[in-house]
Automatic annotation (TrEMBL):
<feature type="domain" description="Glyoxalase-like">
    <location>
        <begin position="132"/>
        <end position="236"/>
    </location>
</feature>
<dbReference type="InterPro" id="IPR041581">
    <property type="entry name" value="Glyoxalase_6"/>
</dbReference>
<protein>
    <recommendedName>
        <fullName>Glyoxalase-like domain-containing protein</fullName>
    </recommendedName>
</protein>
<feature type="domain" description="Glyoxalase-like">
    <location>
        <begin position="8"/>
        <end position="116"/>
    </location>
</feature>
<dbReference type="Pfam" id="PF18029">
    <property type="entry name" value="Glyoxalase_6"/>
</dbReference>
<dbReference type="InterPro" id="IPR029068">
    <property type="entry name" value="Glyas_Bleomycin-R_OHBP_Dase"/>
</dbReference>
Length: 237
C-alpha cells in the first residue's frame, strides 16, 4: 500500500485570487477546501486537487516545480495562452529563446508554467495538466515512485517520470543540474495515507524510503511535515 496524492498545494499571497486564475485557465470547478484553504477539484478520477493556502512570504527565485499544460493544435495553444493573459497571467523570459515552441507564462503570483506545443508525444493522453515538471535527482524520482506506488514511465540520463497506473498527469524530475533551494518551496505535495492504513506506519514507511521529518509551518495543524531526499517539503494528512 502507498500514500495517495491528495493535492498539489500552492502557497499564495492571495489564495482566492490565485485559485480563480487557475480555475479559469484549467476550466475546473472551485470548492471550499476542508483544510482552511480553497481548492480546484479534479475533473476525472485520475486527477488531484489543487489547493491554495495563505502565506505572507513573497516569491523569490524560480520555482522548483511548474505545470506543463498541453494543447491539441496551434489554435488551442494560442487560445490557452490568451486566456491566461486575460485572467492576469504574464509572459516570462527564463532563457527559453525566441524560437521555443512552448510558451512560458507566470500566474498572478509569479509562479511559472508552460503551455506546450501540440504534438508532444511524451504528454499525449495526460490531460490538460500534462506534467508537473520538477527539479530533482534520479533518486528523488525513485523515492516518489515508491511513495505513491506509481510506476516509472521514464528513466533515462538521470531524468525520471512517474504516472498513476490509471493515467493522468505525469510527475517528472529533470536530473542534474538541480537548482539550489533558496527557501521553502512554493508548491508542494499533500498526501493522505492509504485507505484503511495506519498513519504512523505510513510515516515510518516514507522515512524508510528516504524522507525526513521537518518542523516548520508549511503544513496545517494536525498534518505531518516531511521532506523528500532532495529536501522538498511535503505534507501527510
Amino acid at each position: 500500500m502507498a500514500s495517495d496524492l491528495y493535492a498539489i498545494c500552492f502557497d499564495a499571497i492571495e489564495p482566492a485570487a490565485l485559485a480563480r486564475f487557475w480555475s479559469g485557465v484549467l476550466e475546473r470547478q472551485l470548492a471550499d477546501d476542508p483544510h482552511d484553504g480553497i481548492a480546484i477539484l479534479p475533473d476525472d478520477d485520475t486527477g488531484f486537487r489543487i489547493r491554495f493556502v495563505p502565506t505572507g512570504e513573497p516569491k523569490s527565485g524560480q520555482n522548483q516545480a511548474h505545470f506543463d499544460l498541453t494543447s491539441t493544435c496551434p489554435e488551442d495553444q494560442q487560445q490557452r495562452v490568451a486566456r491566461a493573459l486575460e485572467l492576469g497571467g504574464r509572459r516570462l523570459d527564463i532563457g527559453q529563446g525566441a524560437d521555443a515552441a512552448h510558451v512560458v507564462l507566470g500566474d498572478p503570483d509569479g509562479n511559472e508554467f508552460d503551455v506546450i506545443e501540440p504534438g508532444n508525444n511524451f504528454l499525449a493522453g495526460c490531460g490538460v495538466i500534462g506534467a508537473l515538471a520538477c527539479d530533482g535527482t534520479q533518486a528523488v524520482g525513485y523515492f516518489w515512485s515508491a511513495a505513491l506506488g506509481w510506476p516509472l514511465v521514464w528513466d533515462q540520463d538521470q531524468e525520471t517520470a512517474i504516472q498513476s497506473p490509471h493515467g493522468g498527469t505525469k510527475l517528472t524530475w529533470g536530473g542534474p543540474p538541480v537548482k539550489a533551494k533558496t527557501g521553502r518551496n512554493r508548491l508542494h505535495f499533500d498526501l493522505t495515507p492509504p485507505a484503511g492504513g495506519d498513519r504512523e506506519a505510513e510515516i515510518d514507511r516514507l522515512i524508510s524510503l528516504g524522507a525526513t521529518r521537518r518542523d516548520h509551518g508549511q503544513c496545517e495543524a494536525g498534518w505531518t511535515a516531511l521532506a523528500d531526499p532532495d529536501g522538498n517539503e511535503f505534507c501527510l494528512r
